[in-house]
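Issue 218. Parser rejects a valid record. Input:
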Amino acid sequence: MSFLNDDSRTEKPTPKRRQKARTEGSVAKSMDLNSAVVLVAASLMLMWFGGQLMTGLKQIMVNVFREMGNVQVTPDSMPVYLWMGMKQIALLVAPLFLGVMAAGIVVNVGQVGFKVTPKVMHPKFSRLNPLQGVQRLFSLRSLVELVKSILKLGVIGLIVYLTISGQFDKIYNLSRIPIESYGALVGGALVHIFLVISLSLVVIGILDYVYNRVSFEKSLKMTKEEVKEEAKQSEGDPRVKSKVREIMIRSSLRRMMKKVPEADVVIANPIHLAVALKYDRTRNLAPIVVAKGARKVAERIKAVARENNIPIVENPPLARTLYKLVDIGQEIPVELYKAVAEVLAYVYRLKHRFFGVA
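Output the parser choked on:
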C-alpha cells in the first residue's frame, strides 16, 4: 500500500481493480481492532464465566488431592487420568474459548467480508530480499506505524495508571479483609482493568481502521491511462470493435439489399427515407417490411428498386410512420392497413395497365 501522494491518480478504482486487490489479499482492515475486540470478548467472558471457571478448577484440584492416595499410577492408567483431567478442563474453558473465537470471526468478517484467498498463502520469496526489507524498514509506512505504536503505548499507559489509581483504596484495605477474599477482590480488579484497557484499544482500533480505509482507498486510485487500458482489456480495443461493427453493418446491409428485388413496392420520403414492402397472400396476413433505410441507404434501396422495375411511391407521412414503427421482417400494424392497401392497389393497377398483370 502506497502512502505517497500521486497527483496523477485522480480516478476512482474500478470494480475490477477492487476485485484484483481483494484476490491478492489486499483489503482495508485493522489488526489493532481485531486484537481489541478479542480482548474485550475475553474480558466479558471472564466476567460472566470467571467465577464458574474458578469454582470448577478448584473442584478439580480438590478431587485430585482427595483421590491421590487411592490412585494407582501405572503406564496404562496414566493416559486415562490425563484424558479425564483434560476433558474436564476443556469443558470449563470451552465457553471462554468459543466466545473469544466468535468475536474474532465477527470482527474480521465485519471488516473485509467472507472470502478465502489462497493466493495470500503462497510463499513470496521476494520478501526475503534484504534490500526490499531495508526499504520497508525505512519507508513512510514504517514511520507512521512507529508513531501509531508510540501513541498507543502512551494512551494505554495513561489509562492503566488512571484505572489502577482508582483501585488504590481497595489495595490499601487488603490487610483488613479475610485472606480467602483476596482471590475474588484481586481477580475482579484485574478483570476490570483488563476490560477498560480493551475498550480503550477498541476505540484506537476503530480510528486505525478508518485511517487504513482512507489509505487503502487512496492506494487503489487509478490514473486516466490505467482506466482506459482496463476498459480496452475488458471490452476490447475500440478500433477493433468499431471495425467489427462496420463489417456486421455491411453484411446486414447486403442481406437486406438482396430482399429488395422481391418487394412489391418501395414507399419513399423523396430524399430521406425508403421502405420496401412485400405482400404474399399465401404466407402473411399483411405486408411485411423487407428493407428500410435513411439517406444513403434509402438512395441505394431506390436504385435497386429501379434496376428491378419495382414501383417507387412517394408518400412522406406513410414512409416516416413505417420507418419508425416497423422493423425489417415484421408485418405492418393494423392501423396502417388502409394506407398500405391503397398504395398496393395503385401499384397493382399500374402493373395491370402496363404489363397486363392481374
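Fixed in the parser; the record now loads. The mean pLDDT is 78.
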